[in-house]
Every structure is written in C-alpha cells, then in structure tokens.
Amino acid sequence: MLESPTRSEQTRNAIVEAALTILDRDGAAKLTFEAIARECGISKGAVTHHFHSKSALLKEVFQYRSDSFEVFRRNYLASRTPEDGQQALALHIATTREMVERSRSPARAMLSILADDPTPMEVPRKMFAQQVEQIRKEAPDPDLALLRWEAGWGLALYTLFGLSPLSDEERSRLFDQLLDNSRWTSFERPSRSD
C-alpha cells in the first residue's frame, strides 16, 4: 500500500505545480516566489522554506516533469514489440512529440532555466548524452538515427518557441514519418569502422 504524501510533500508539489502553471501561462520573467505564493494560496515564506533559490525551484520543476515523462516512456516502450526495431530512437522521437502536444512541458521549464541560469542544465545534458549513446548502439546507421532524433527535437523546439509555420496535422504527420523505420531503411548505410 502506498503511503500518502506528507503535508510538506503536498506543499512542495503544489509549489512546483504553481511554477509550471506560471511558466506555461506567463513565462519565466513572471516566475517569482510572490507569484508562486499567490498561485498556491500560501505565503512567500512557505515557498522560500521549500526552495531557497529560483535555481533550486527550477531544478525541481524539471525533475518533476521529467518524472512524469518517464511514465509516458515506460508505457510507450511497453506498447512496442522488438520487431518494431530501433526502440531507443522511436522512444525519443515519441517523447519529443508528447512534449509538444502536452501542456506544461518540461521543455518549457528547461528553456526557462536556460534563460535564468545555464548551470542547472547539467542534468539534461547528461540525460541527452545517454540517449545518444543508446541510439548509436542499437541503430544500423547511427548517423541517420541521430539525424532523425535531431529532426524530432527541431520539430519540438520550433513549436515550443512558437516559430513553427506547420499546422498541428502537418507536425503530427512529420512525427509519424520520423517514427516509421520502414521509411528510412533505404537510406541506411552501415556504420564505418574507425
């Protein structure tokens, strides 16, 4: 039986949820401890009790959303069969698609962190390095696989920045094509031995 979260954990989660709401609605410039306190209906002191700096809060926001995406990732992998091929690549493309389609995306939190302080980006940088290594190991053509992975990120970031001229349907169709291994096999070249 799962234990219910303590009052302190509930308050901490409410603060993170409020931060996500503010980031999504108003942007990083409006994310202040005062704004979070108003959004949560708690005192600014309660916010600073749980998070001593905006940087610490943003790290927690990123971790909180990353954890929720981990559930999506596990469910996505469970829905695929080994015959589908290139599991890591498909997983990461599907995750970037989910990031665009889901509100309160961790990508928005990451962009807000970058705007404020680039040092907390070490965690996602390491995560991306692990993803790239996993994709390289399983792909018959690592360069083509990484090109597809980067294309997925390009679609996601253009959308998150509000720069994409594509309709939702066009973007969805392109994500489908990135995920479809059969569309790429004729372009695959065996990796070169160095």
UniProtKB/TrEMBL annotation:
Keywords assigned by UniProt, alphabetized: DNA-binding, Transcription, Transcription regulation
Leader sequence residues: none
Keyword check for Transcription: yes
Gene Ontology molecular functions: DNA-binding transcription factor activity; transcription cis-regulatory region binding
Entry's transmembrane regions: none
Occurrences of domain HTH tetR-type (ranges): 9-69
UniProt DNA-binding residue ranges: 32-51
Name recorded for this polypeptide: HTH tetR-type domain-containing protein
